[in-house]
Design goal:
Largest sheet of chain A: 6 strands, mixed
Helix content of chain A: under 10%
Helix content of chain B: under 10%
Radius of gyration of chain B: 14 Å
Structural class of chain B: mainly beta
Oligomer: heterodimer
Largest interface: A-B, 26 and 29 residues
Strand content of chain B: over 45%
Order of helices and strands of chain A: EEEEEEEEEEEE
Structural class of chain A: mainly beta
Number of helices of chain A: 0
Number of helices of chain B: 0
Chain lengths: ~120, ~120
């Protein structure tokens, strides 16, 4: 069975600094998707960034980028120039191949990021 | 913008009560999901539905049932609430093209349920 592991329950970063959140996963599939979701306090979960496993290039979205290491089954999120609004719970998630009824996400346990002014 | 709404942000129920959690999405999405979020456990899938009246069990369906009579609405039912069902419940929806393209899930704000 596929699993997603986030080994950092909490992290802290100074405003304007860079922080990296770790995620590892286990799968026997070769084609899959990986995601980072952000859940701000008392607000809705939103998608931050996604990576298709067949793409060698790491995904980037403005200040957010990933380091996708397929062989190592590692998928870390880097937040550059951290802002107070980045404070949130971050979840790493995996989706295997397939479509339709198999649109199932497997989530890690989350990393709570605090941003210090 | 996609909007996923949930009927309550906070709910307090007594043990043994029947509890309904409702979720509505306004984007004509085929797929709808119910998750449970607990500290240290992340999100776990309870049930999902890929069409009206269609449902499939997720990872932790025990003690729950669902109903999807209309495309935009997906209800989670706790037949007889128990204290171990105290949790945050998140609804999500996504488009499904039937192809191998994956469309992201959009989440509701969550319902924090306390069973006493």
């Amino acid at each position: 069975a596929q699993t997603v592991t986030q080994s950092q329950p909490e992290m802290s970063v100074q405003e304007a600094e860079t922080v990296t959140l770790s995620c590892t996963y286990d799968t026997s599939e070769s084609d899959y998707y990986l995601f980072w979701y952000k859940q701000p306090p008392s607000r809705q979960m939103i998608l931050v960034i996604r990576q298709e496993a067949y793409k060698q290039q790491n995904a980037t979205e403005n200040r957010f980028s990933v380091n996708f290491q397929k062989a190592a089954k590692s998928f870390s999120l880097k937040i550059s120039d951290s802002q107070l609004g980045d404070a949130a719970m971050y979840f790493c998630a995996y989706k295997g191949p397939g479509h339709g009824a198999t649109n199932k996400l497997i989530f890690g346990t989350g990393t709570l990021l605090a941003v210090q002014p | 913008d996609v909007k996923v709404t949930q009927s309550s942000r906070y709910l307090v129920k007594r043990t043994g009560e029947k509890v309904f959690l409702e979720c509505v999405q306004d984007m004509d999405h085929e797929n709808m999901f119910w998750y449970r979020q607990d500290p240290g456990l992340g999100l776990r899938l309870i049930y999902f539905s890929y069409d009206v009246k269609m449902k499939e069990k997720g990872d932790i369906p025990e003690g729950y049932s669902v109903s999807r009579e209309k495309k935009e609405r997906f209800s989670l039912i706790l037949e007889s609430a128990s204290t171990n069902q105290t949790s945050m419940y998140l609804c999500a929806s996504s488009f499904s093209s039937g192809s191998f393209i994956y469309y992201e899930q959009y989440f509701g704000p969550g319902t924090r349920l306390t069973v006493t």
